[in-house]
Amino acid sequence: VSKLSIMVMVKISQNCPPWKRITEGLNIEGYCPNSSCQSYNKGRVIFCWGFGNGGVFNFLQDKQFCKCPLCNRNFEPTNFGFLDTWYKVSGWKKTSSTEALNVSHEWEFAPNSSYTTFSGDNQISSDW
C-alpha cells in the first residue's frame, strides 16, 4: 500500500477569485481548457462536489461532472481537497504497463479552519 503525496493545509481566503471557491466536503481541482474563460491560465479551478453521491467520487466514472465554475466547460481532474469532513482516498495506481499499486490513505479529518489538499499537482491522472 502506497501513500499519496504530503498533505498541506491551505488558509482559506474570503477574497479568492470565483473559480477558487470551495465547499464543505470534497473539492476537485483542475485547469480550465477554455481559452475564452476568465480562469484560463490563472491556476487551478475548483469544482465543488461537496457531499454529492454520499461523498463518494469515482474518478473514472464521475470526472465527467467536473466543470469550470465560470464557463461550465469540463476539465481533467489533477488534484483534490477537503473541508470540514472525514475523508479516505484509495484506489489502484498504474506503476508500469502491466502492474498497479494499491494506494490507500487512512481516514482523517479535514477541519473547517483550512483547506486540506495534497501538495503538488497531477495526483489524479490516467495512471489511476
UniProtKB/TrEMBL annotation:
Q: Which organism is it from?
A: Ambispora leptoticha
**What is the name of the protein in this document?**
2110_t:CDS:1
